[in-house]
Design goal:
This protein is an all-alpha fold. It is 73% helix and 0% strand. The chain has one domain. The two termini are 24 Å apart. The relative contact order is 0.23.
Amino acid sequence: MIAGGALLTMNDAVMKWLTGDYSTGQIMFVRGLFAYVPIAYFVWRAGGIRHLHIVSYKGQALRAVLVVAGTYCFVTGLALLPLADAISIAFAGPLFVTALASALLKEVVGWRRWTAVFVGFLGVLVIIRPAGEAMQWAALLPLTASLTGAFRDILTRHIAAGEQSATILVVTTTAVCLSGLATAPFGWVAVAVDDMAFFALSGFLLGAAHFLMIDTFRYAEAALVAPFKYTTIIWATILGYIIWGDRPDTFTLVGSAIVVASGLYILKRESLHKNQIPPTA
């Protein structure tokens, strides 16, 4: 999850760079084409195309819809917000996962972790500042993406036992590409030769990152691994400053700290529960 998060943040930085010249749909399509390169390797490692079999068509289709919706929201949010702000708001995803894991996966989530989830969402509000003059409605885009991402992670946990990671990745990538292609009549422009390298880099990073994240849910519960996504704020802050000169303001830093602390507390309580200490949290 840590490695996948680092690669995904690098991909986010590349996408934010591309949003200055290309529409969200075009970025999704062109990037998706390049993502098939690392995916081809993973398919080969899994035994080739002949070994790709869809077990749950409904689960795969629903996951694809969630990924497409989340991608549209997040990429559009990247175009309108600083990189660190967009990713900090998206940190609500692991909080959503912990909350939803109780109802959808029947994972035990005690009152202390519920409290941590509540505090984490307060941290998100600090970042967004809904009552302040600095409130940007664009912040709702990565927040929506984090919600769809939480449902995606929960669903991945549910279907991962019967589906190969390579199969999940192929289905999802194809859905994203086709949805992006559907926007071709609306504002696409010719891709500059120099930018093609950025699309290729984004595709490689995306394919590798999602494969690692999909495989993560084979080995641990969703509520356990989700907090490790918080390490992405380090890369987002560094890349945002180096490339665009963005410096997170006090609200973003404080809110992010609250969300990260909540996530780490959830991780600690989950570890105690796994070690069969009385589940009082």
